[in-house]
Amino acid sequence: MSCCPPNAEKYLAPDYSFVGSTVALDTGLELYVTGTGASKKGLLIVPDIYGWNGGRTRNIADYYAEEGYYVVVPKLLTPAIDGGTDGDGFAAIISMEHLVENLMKFPYPGNLDAKIEATVAHMKAQGVESIGLM
Predict the structure, then answer these.
(1) Buried (b) or exposed (e) across 39-56, using 16+ Cβ within 10 A?
(2) Pick from 30, 39, 107, 130: most CB atoms within 10 A?
(3) Mind listing the pLDDT tens digit for each residue in 35-65?
(4) pLDDT tens per residue, range 19-32
């Protein structure tokens, strides 16, 4: 019995190369996009606190794109804290005290809403009719 879905091994490899690309919307929002809207199924992945290029976020996006989804990972947590990961989210090494302090200061209202709306509009413009959220 395997720990992972069939075909997942390549996404877990330490030398995995992303298949998607980054795009910048007219609003300035950057997205990692992979797959095609031709299937009309989309998946919006909200990254964790380490941002749009932290951990295996893009690997997961590529996996679902291969399963037939148009997948988008927006760069949401800007401005980045202590440089973040690829200019988004929090730095990979951060003390718990500093993390909590900055989580409380982050300007969530008004910051995330417009970015999510712009992401959804982009997905619909690519032909996506049904959007899941992860």
Answers:
(1) bebbbbbebebbbbbbee
(2) 30
(3) 998 989 999 999 988 888 877 899 899 999 9
(4) 999 999 999 999 99
